[in-house]
# Entry
Amino acid sequence: MATDVTKGSEQDASLLVVWQQGDQSAGERLFDRHADAVARFFENKVRRGAEDLTQATFLRVLEGRDRIREGGSFRAFMLGVARNVLREHIRELVRGERIDPEVDSMADLDPGPSSVMGERQEHQLMLEGLRHICIEDQMLLELFYWEGLRTHEVAEVLGISSSAARRRLAKARARLDAMMAQIAASPELLNRTLRDLESWVAEVRKQLGARPGEPAR
# Structure
């Protein structure tokens, strides 16, 4: 029996074919299914303007719908576009200064607390930890843990091989753990957060919102 993720991918593929043939309502359904995922992508990275960046992503996807290859993941394609939109936004944010997404963090480039307010201390530690690791690591982990993308879909978003994505995921998780250890208010808070990280991720994802029709993890 197909998993919910597989069923969601098959539904996306069917809608995409019809949309590319000119049925605008199919495109609207695709956007509606993935709107919250795109919003989540921006919300813990930028402290203001997430809605504008989400709209810019939808416009780019609309313009590039005929480039989405058959058999590819629409969700991965859309989040790949969101990644490009974010990188352009960051270049505007630093006004010509050189940045390295594999070194610089959103906390460096856009100082201040996350715009996402965690309901528990564990949520807050995780969210701040993500903002303090490099941008590429943050994107990688949020795609995998928040959005439930499979390794090959993460690879598609980042434009790398599946084996490279697996290696980078392991390294990114280690760096997140190390960053949370640096900023945690107490060893007890750190241990609670590390011990049940996936549960905290699921709770924050629920707090940010997932529409009933959206593919679940």
User: Anything to note?
Assistant: The CA atoms of residues 168 and 174 lie 10 Å apart.
